[in-house]
Amino acid sequence: MKRNYCSAKLLLKYEAEMETSLQNNRTTPDKRSKLALFYKLKGDLLLDENIEEAFDCYMKSALEYMKISLHGKAFEMLYLMTNAMDGSPHLNQKAIRKLSTAFNFLSQ
Fold first, then answer.
1. Can you give the pLDDT at residue 57?
2. Around Cβ 60, how many Cβ atoms within 10 Å?
3. How many CA atoms lie within 13 A of 100 on its CB side?
4. Residue 96 and residue 108: Cα distance in Å, rounded?
5. CB-based burial label for 62 (10 Å; 0-12, 13-18, 19+)
6. What per-residue confidence (pLDDT) applies to 85?
7. Pick the residue with more confidence: 7 or 36?
8. Mean model confidence pLDDT for the chain
9. When you count CB atoms within 10 A of the terminal residue's CB, does the N or C end of the chain come out lower?
10. How much is the pLDDT for 1?
């Protein structure tokens, strides 16, 4: 798979527009799942640069998946977070707290 990080980062400027488009009460689950996927991919992109921000993206993805009852997908984000923790020697306490918060939220 070819990774073009520069092009991917350019797409991040559309995040606010995507979030605004979901403010409508008639937003379809399909749109919400696309936003959740966007956050997941953004988290993947940021994982090597800023693990805390990547975790925030995974949390946003999980929240969007929960809104449309895709619980399995939401827990996949938790898996990505735990997997990142396993391979990160410089993980800090803030990132660990984010994982704990995500786990508690998704377990309810």
1. 93
2. 20
3. 6
4. 19
5. buried
6. 76
7. 36
8. 81
9. N
10. 42
The percent of residues above 70 in pLDDT, for the chain, comes to 85
Please tell me the distance from the alpha carbon of residue 47 to that of residue 37, in angstroms, as a whole number: 15
- DSSP letter for 88, please: -
At 86, give phi and psi (nearest 5°). -65, -35
Report d(CA 108, CA 104) in Å as an integer.
7
Question: DSSP 3-state assignment of 41?
Answer: helix
- Residues composing the chain: 108
Domain boundary assignment for the chain: 29-107
How confident is the model over 40-59, as a mean pLDDT? 89
- H helical segments located in 22-86: 29-46, 51-67, 71-86
| 68, 33 Cβ separation under 8 angstroms | yes
- State the Cα angle at 22 between 16 and 25, rounded to 5°: 150
CA 86 – CA 29 distance, rounded (Å): 32
